[in-house]
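Here is the promised in-class demo. Please do not try to memorize the tokens; focus on the logic of going from shape to residues.
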């Protein structure tokens, strides 16, 4: 066959395949996908057709496997049945008038109701939070449930591991869940797993990516939750992972980076609902349905006058039909009447959240945002920066937490009575890809604690001004814009 003809046929074939890919992408990609995510994927496919298709096939679906989603539906039904006896008086005079409907939404989405009679205390000291959790494990008589995105056995967490070992020795059942991808990427992960085996902890990976073992889902769908439950009487949750505050990463140590977190210690009936989240994750990963390691909601009532908080646990992630955490944040920001203070280490909002925040400013609400001045993840950091001009222009006050600290705390306070703390960042990843847990709290005493934490941030942070930001060099603006375009890849 003539060589010129062969060359022409190859070119024609390549053009036809390329055109077919582009047409198929326009038809398939926008289905059931946010416009921002669809546009980002279409951009990738059109610029790098063959590689873009490969990435889309690997990462294009934000849904967990069908079996996992079916489990979540069954779990929600069980949670609804188990929590039917729980009740909070939604006519309480101290509630803002808009809160009741938000708690109804949360229960419809996550199956967990608002419960009264709780106490909660914030912990913003990294080492102290680990010490406090270890101390409670030291008192365990029945069970200990531990769930973290990252778990590492190191000098900082040694006392936590020692407390788990002592509990196992006493005959206490200790169960631990850790995210597969995040933990195996951590320095010393083999030693961590060996230590868990040595001390007798019953552990399992969350969302393992092990195709040779028949366990596979989109690799960047991760379980990002952080919680500890002891005997059903006390729980801890928040932003902190079980690892040294440098994350033991050479690049972090070289830069002197340290993570600043916020955890909360909770007692009261809400502990049983935090425990439910752990039990559901354990069932999802191990197929073991545990029914005897949960305390009745009224078994461990808090003592004293501090039990004045109404609390609701809001689980979220790709196992749910809706973006539970995004809907919660949107509802709260829209409801704010006086102030909304946001703390998020990775702030990459979607269009709806930007409209909620800027509209709040236009309604006269004081909006403040706390972020880190430096970043530990380049693409996310630059995508975050791309929103600063619009936020400043709308009237949002942006405070930048100083180096060498990475402000990793994740919380939101609305007016003087409502706050949220948990594992969820205010970014597209936390809204759509990661399994998260948030705690909605109604109570002036808790919000007052959070105001103290925010005041501490403000005292050492530098406020970013519109004038300063307008002088950013062009190269930074270009990087920010590119990062923003690719942040929607879901």
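The designed amino acids, position by position:
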């Amino acid at each position: 066959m003539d060589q010129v003809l062969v060359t022409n046929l190859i070119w024609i074939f390549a053009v036809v395949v390329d055109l077919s890919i582009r047409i198929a992408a326009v038809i398939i990609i926008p289905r059931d996908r946010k416009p921002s995510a669809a546009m980002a994927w279409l951009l990738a496919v059109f610029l790098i057709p063959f590689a873009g298709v490969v990435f889309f096939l690997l990462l294009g679906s934000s849904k967990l496997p069908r079996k996992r989603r079916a489990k979540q539906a069954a779990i929600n039904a069980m949670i609804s049945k188990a929590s039917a006896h729980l009740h909070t008086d939604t006519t309480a005079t101290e509630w803002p008038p808009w809160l009741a409907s938000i708690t109804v939404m949360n229960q419809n989405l996550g199956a967990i109701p608002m419960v009264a009679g709780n106490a909660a205390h914030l912990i913003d000291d990294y080492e102290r939070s680990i010490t406090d959790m270890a101390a409670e494990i030291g008192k365990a008589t029945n069970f200990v449930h531990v769930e973290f995105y990252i778990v590492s056995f190191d000098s900082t967490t040694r006392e936590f591991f020692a407390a788990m070992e002592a509990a196992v020795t006493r005959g206490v059942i200790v169960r631990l869940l850790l995210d597969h991808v995040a933990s195996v990427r951590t320095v010393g992960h083999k030693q961590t797993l060996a230590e868990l085996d040595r001390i007798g902890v019953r552990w399992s990976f969350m969302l393992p990516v092990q195709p040779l073992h028949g366990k596979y889902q989109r690799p960047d769908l991760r379980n990002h939750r952080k919680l500890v439950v002891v005997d059903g009487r006390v729980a801890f949750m928040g932003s902190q992972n079980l690892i040294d505050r440098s994350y033991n990463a050479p690049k972090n140590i070289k830069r002197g980076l340290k993570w600043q977190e916020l955890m909360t210690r909770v007692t009261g009936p809400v502990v049983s609902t935090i425990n439910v989240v752990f039990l559901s994750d354990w069932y999802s990963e191990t197929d073991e349905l545990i029914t005897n390691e949960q305390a009745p909601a009224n078994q461990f009532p808090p003592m004293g006058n501090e039990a004045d908080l109404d609390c609701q646990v809001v689980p979220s992630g790709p196992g749910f039909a809706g973006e539970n955490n995004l809907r919660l944040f949107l509802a709260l920001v829209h409801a704010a009447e006086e102030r909304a203070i946001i703390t998020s280490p990775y702030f990459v909002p979607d269009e709806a959240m930007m409209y909620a925040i800027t509209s709040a400013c236009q309604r006269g609400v004081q909006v403040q945002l706390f972020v880190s001045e430096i970043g530990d993840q380049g693409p996310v950091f630059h995508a975050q920066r791309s929103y600063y001009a619009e936020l400043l222009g709308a009237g949002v006050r942006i405070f930048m937490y100083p180096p060498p600290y990475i402000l990793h705390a994740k919380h939101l306070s609305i007016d003087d009575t409502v706050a949220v703390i948990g594992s969820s960042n205010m970014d597209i990843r936390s809204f759509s890809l990661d399994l998260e847990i948030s705690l909605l709290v109604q109570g002036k005493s808790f919000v007052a604690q959070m105001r103290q934490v925010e005041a501490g941030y403000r005292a050492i942070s530098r406020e970013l001004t519109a004038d300063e930001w307008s002088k950013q060099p062009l190269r930074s603006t270009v990087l920010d814009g590119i990062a923003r375009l690719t942040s929607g890849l879901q």
